[in-house]
Amino acid sequence: MKVILAGSTGFIGRETLNQCLRNPAITSVVALSRRDLPAHDKLQVTLMKDFVSYSASVRENVKDAEACIWTIGLIPSTAFKDDDGATARRVSIEYTMLAAEAFEETCRKPFRFIYVSGAGAEQDQTKSLWVMGDYRRIRGLVESELLNFAKAHSDFTSYIVRPAMVISNEATLHSLFYRLGPSVRVDAISKFMVELAVKGDDKIVWENSEIK
Ligand SMILES: NC(=O)c1ccc[n+]([C@@H]2O[C@H](COP(=O)([O-])OP(=O)(O)OC[C@H]3O[C@@H](n4cnc5c(N)ncnc54)[C@H](OP(=O)(O)O)[C@@H]3O)[C@@H](O)[C@H]2O)c1
């Protein structure tokens, strides 16, 4: 099967790309990226200036895909740094939903969209939150929009994956420290998302402990 991967230059996306390329059920990966990636027989890099418009040539590249793993996103420390969250909202909400719409219009059906959200995402936009409130609400809003989108399109399934801290495969001081709290190894979450893309599941929302 053909799988679309967004965010393949990032920490989680890089490992997810490796897992996709290794998986025999995946014959082709279309990486939507702002930057080029090392060549591989199974990989087709589709360079995107922004993630707002899906040109005819981009649609041509993704039209045979049956799933997307979406790992584009901002981490809490940078999301609200410069512009009071405008970039965070554009990248998190607008980019994700425009992609869902483009893939629903263009790709093979049934289609699976796997979204990397985060632990503590809050779908209830009225709830007051003590820690990282803006960030968790934006995540929750994307989740609800994706779930509503899937309700409105019977041949489109949105999966929500909520990791806590994602740690590297190597036993560095950093990863050993974070392993003490809620966390998941990057190879584990990546493998898990690739399996979801290939096989699907009746369960839609996956918490950190379930991913592990
Ligand atoms: N790492 C964790 O511990 C953790 C835990 C929970 C949830 N998450 C979530 O998982 C997702 C991926 O995390 P990560 O650690 O892999 O992050 P990362 O290493 O910072 O990678 C982010 C990816 O998003 C892309 N991106 C960022 N801003 C963009 C923009 N304005 N336009 C287009 N692409 C953009 C980057 O592309 P470029 O290379 O082109 O910049 C990169 O591919 C994020 O949503 C993050 O919040 C991460």
From TrEMBL:
<dbReference type="Pfam" id="PF13460">
    <property type="entry name" value="NAD_binding_10"/>
</dbReference>
<dbReference type="InterPro" id="IPR036291">
    <property type="entry name" value="NAD(P)-bd_dom_sf"/>
</dbReference>
<protein>
    <recommendedName>
        <fullName>NAD(P)-binding domain-containing protein</fullName>
    </recommendedName>
</protein>
<feature type="domain" description="NAD(P)-binding">
    <location>
        <begin position="7"/>
        <end position="193"/>
    </location>
</feature>
<dbReference type="InterPro" id="IPR016040">
    <property type="entry name" value="NAD(P)-bd_dom"/>
</dbReference>
